[in-house]
Amino acid sequence: MNFLYFDNAATTWPKPQEMLDAMIRYQETVGGSPGRSAHRLSIEAARIVYDTREAVAELFGIDDPLRIVFTKNATEGLNTAIQGLLKPGDHCITSGMEHNSVMRPLRAMEAKGVDVSVIPCRDDGTLEPSDVEAAIRPRTKLIVLIHASNIIGTLMPVRKVGAIARRHGIPLLVDAAQTAGAIPIDVGAMNIDLLAFTGHKSLFGPQGTGGLYIREGLDEQIPPLMMGGTGSRSEFEEQPNFMPDKYESGTPNAIGLAGLGAGIGFLRTVGIDAIREKETALTKAFLEGAGTLKGIHLYGPPDMRKRTSVVSFNIEGMSPSEAAMHLDENYRILCRPGLHCAPLAHRTVGTFPQGTLRFSFGYYNTLGQIQKALKALEKISREH
Question: Are residues 9 and 87 in the same domain?
Answer without folding.
Answer: no
